[in-house]
Structure formats: C-alpha cells, structure tokens
Amino acid sequence: MSNHDFYLWDDELSEREAFLIGKSIAQWGALENEIFVQTLMTFEDKDVALPKAMNNLQFTEILELWKERVVAKAEQEQKNVLAQQYEKILKLKDYRDALVHGMWQWSKNELSKITSVRIRKKEIISVHFAADDLADFSLKLARINFKLRFPGGVEDLAEQRAAEGFYISRLGAALFTGAPIAEDWLKATGITVDDEKED
Does 59 map to a domain? Predict the structure, then answer.
C-alpha cells in the first residue's frame, strides 16, 4: 500500500444529505425492480421471446411496456392508481437522473444548496436541491413504491400478508437474531442495544 492510499476525496455532503441520497437511490432501485418484475410476469408463455426492452434494461422502455401490459389490463380502480404512479414516475425521473448522473457543485453563497449539472445531447440541465428536497423526493418514491405493490391500499397489503401466513421485517429479524445491523436502526431512533437490555 502506498502513502497515497491514505488520502480520500471528500464529497462534502452532510450526513443527512448522504443518507437521503442513499435512501432515494434504494427507493428508485426498488421501483425499477418492481416495474420490471410486474412486466416480466405478463409474459406467461415461456416460449415467447421477450421484447428488446426487457433485455437491454432501458428503464423508460420497460416503463412503457409496464403501462401497456400491466396498467392497461388492471381492474379500473387499480388501473387509476397505477396510471397515477406512471405519471409521477415520469415527473420524478429527471430529478433522479440529476442525482445519479449529474456533476455536483455546492454554492458558496448558499451552503445548503447543491446544483447538479448534466448534459443531455446538446442541452445543459441544472437541478438545484437541498436536504429537505431530498427528503421530499425519497418520501414520494416510498409512496409510489407502496402503491405499485398495493394499488388497492392497505387492504391489498393485508390480503398479501394473510396469504403469506407470516412476515417479519428485516429490522425485526435483526432484533430477534441479535444481528449487528439492528444497531443502525436503533441509533436512528436514539435507542441503543444497551437501553433495550436494561428493560
């Protein structure tokens, strides 16, 4: 190992900004995965060749297939909910692309503001955001993710849980098994494993 391995580039993100960016990227990844899986499940015949969109993983192409094969064929109430999610995803995609593909700069005049700059074809696109914007974005994605999976709302969720017979969250599993990852969740709430042991 050379002496240069001890030097690290500082992204100059606050802990909250880094957390919210990570949360947003995880939410978007879950969204893309759910859209892909729901679309894939519409190809029931194993002998049918999948369309090109399903093979090159270009999300916008898969999203269009999802609209055609899942949304359009859903029952009316679910169709309305899923169509709304489709529109929301389209509106949020540029913001997501700015986070993932942009070159970030922070403002010397307004330290809480970050600007993401990217070039698409011959167009320069700038998106400004602060930590509260990231929190809002992450929450919007979480709501979309829920409605993609349960377009009928909590009734759909309850029905799925009942069909599964039993469900335990990752946090619950970590707490029951004593896995070290549980400490991360507890720290976020201000509780430590030692506090839990005292009760």
Answer: yes
